[in-house]
Write a structure and sequence with these properties.
single chain; 179 residues; alpha/beta; Rossmann fold; five-stranded parallel β-sheet; 6 helices; globular; binds flavin mononucleotide; FMN; FMN binding; oxidoreductase activity; Flavoprotein-like_sf
Amino acid sequence: MPIVRVLAISGSLRAASLNSALLRAVVCLAPADIRVELYTGLNSLPLFNPDIEITDASPVADFHARLLEADGVIIASPEYAHGVTGVMKNALDWMVGSEAFVGKPVALLNASPRATIAQASLKETLTVMSAQVVEAASITLPIIGSHLDEHGIIADPSITTAIREALRAFRMEIVNCKA
Ligand SMILES: Cc1cc2nc3c(=O)[nH]c(=O)nc-3n(C[C@H](O)[C@H](O)[C@H](O)COP(=O)(O)O)c2cc1C
């Protein structure tokens, strides 16, 4: 498998989101054999309603299709009041009844060492959805309080080393998963 396709999802809608900046840095730092696409449609997903089929809401159908096409998913999401952000959980709820995350390798990036409760909750939700959370690719980075945007992240040697190592581990797991 020469190139693996990865969908990156930020759980924050904030314009100055650290999690989104982290994922933009990941897009830039990804080696040639990993194509990382940033999903920017979280804001367009309607509130989850089990009465509505995935195919009946076009933003949801698009999200579903992108997930199916992806060999792996990277999620970076903040913690709000010790929980996963509403927009992130809403997106996952839409996919619960589908096969989108079944067996899908997922890397969880955490931009805040303080945000442990939401991270654990996100991992639990993905695990119950039968995703394969890849521990070696799930890292916590000290982005919060650092005042780094994506350019600062890319310029920080210790952070870029950690991201590159996580991406390498993630690719290896994806390739093993497909074999
Ligand atoms: C409504 C709200 C609730 C928050 N609750 C927590 C929390 O429980 N634990 C925590 O570590 N940080 C909490 N924070 C801080 C955010 O995690 C932090 O601002 C983070 O940078 C937000 O992610 P973003 O920069 O990607 O938008 C909260 C922020 C907001 C706006």
